[in-house]
From TrEMBL:
Residues 1-32 are annotated as: Disordered. It comes from Streptomyces daqingensis. This is Regulatory protein. Residues 1-11 have a biased composition (Basic and acidic residues). Residues 12-26 have a biased composition (Basic residues). It comes from the Bacteria.
Amino acid sequence: MISDLLKEVSSRRKRAGRRPTAKQTRRPCPLKGSSIMRQIPVDTTTAQVMAAGPAEAKTNRQTGEIQTDRETGAKLMTVNVMFALEGNAPEILSITVPEPGITGELAMGTPLALTGLIARPWDNEFNGQRRHGIAFRAVAVTSLAAGQSEAA
């Protein structure tokens, strides 16, 4: 599933590098110069999701400062998860989550529930190299082990 999204983004980037047709040059891009980003909701109902390690503070690579949510001011955390859909190989995803959205212990292998997971394609150019990928963001990450241990 995630691999399919990366392939789609990659193929769009390749097509974007081709010379535009006459029809394409006549229409202006509605997103050019705007800050609108495409957000793709990710259905996690049939996925097995487990923690791949503890949550870590998300930092700016250049300044080392801890990043915060633009709307709420909450500290942002990065949670690495193993995401597996039936019939597909598991993938490790790094998901950005506001700190208040993390509940329960996120030890390695802990089953998790992801609330409001979205995928956001991105691309940039750095030192003449074009890079692209998919960023993941969730409203909340909840440990399912906490509920099981309380019930026992």
